[in-house]
Amino acid sequence: MTFNEGMQIDPDRVSVGGGPGRGGKIALGGGAGGLIVLVLALLLGGDPGSLIGDLTGAQDSQVAQAPGGGLPEHCTDGASANKYVDCRVALTIQSLDSVWAPELPKQTGQRYVEPKVRMFSGAISTGCGNATSAVGPFYCPADQSAYFDVSFFQELVDRFGASGGPLAQEYVVAHEIGHHIQNQLGDIDRAQRDPQGANSAAVRTELQADCYAGLWAHFADKTPAPGSNQPFLKPLSDNDIRDALSAASAVGDDRIQQASRGRVNPEAWTHGSSEQRQKWFLTGYKTGQVKACDTYSAPSVDNPPALR
């Protein structure tokens, strides 16, 4: 999926470096990136707290504390978003805003509040605690912010075998903003109440964020950008969808377990299987409906009702 070249990047929509003050615990409902550390640490018997600090976690000297600045000068328009990953993240966020601003109130009656978005490198202090780049992309409900270290996208390819295509990266961004939608609708806390298992609320929460990412893709090439008669993105191709499905599959619990331990244990799942993640993304993509993404009411997360 590529951007229309004339789309302008708002240099102030995304901040780079720095972070807000410290706060409570990190959101374990992180998306594809949070999965890399959190799931591997849990499955292999490690301590995710060693990579995601709380008030006494990462050393102050390692954490970016200064107020965030704007995007680098090379991020100007759709053409730069098609070339540079950091610019792509920024313009994807604007596309997500343009989709959710009308669709959330239309479909739920809830006004869309733009999340804060921060790109960082190394480590950062968040409203949920200190985090390192090893966590990958994640969403913090306490400060309503999504955090991205763009180096993760190459790791997604090199370490987990995902496609390097644009929609694979945009899917990750859309998934994290999906957590923001859950936060607005009052659902994100469900994951903490039932944090592990094949049919757990944690898995259902992550699959719903995948579905919301698909919902964005449904509208992304059709919804005009503010002040324009063109959408941010050019029409999706079959290859674009394959890119997104590749990323969803790459971070499935079963695939990571098999690669790391040589066996699959559904009782330890926190994000869902590769097949489940693909199915729920497709549910959002094919329906464009928030109600179709109700993973909590689905009798089985293996078979989204909307795909039957």
TrEMBL record:
<keyword id="KW-0472">Membrane</keyword>
<keyword id="KW-1133">Transmembrane helix</keyword>
<feature type="region of interest" description="Disordered">
    <location>
        <begin position="252"/>
        <end position="275"/>
    </location>
</feature>
<protein>
    <submittedName>
        <fullName>Membrane protein</fullName>
    </submittedName>
</protein>
<dbReference type="Pfam" id="PF04228">
    <property type="entry name" value="Zn_peptidase"/>
</dbReference>
<keyword id="KW-0812">Transmembrane</keyword>
<dbReference type="InterPro" id="IPR007343">
    <property type="entry name" value="Uncharacterised_pept_Zn_put"/>
</dbReference>
<dbReference type="GO" id="GO:0016020">
    <property type="term" value="C:membrane"/>
</dbReference>
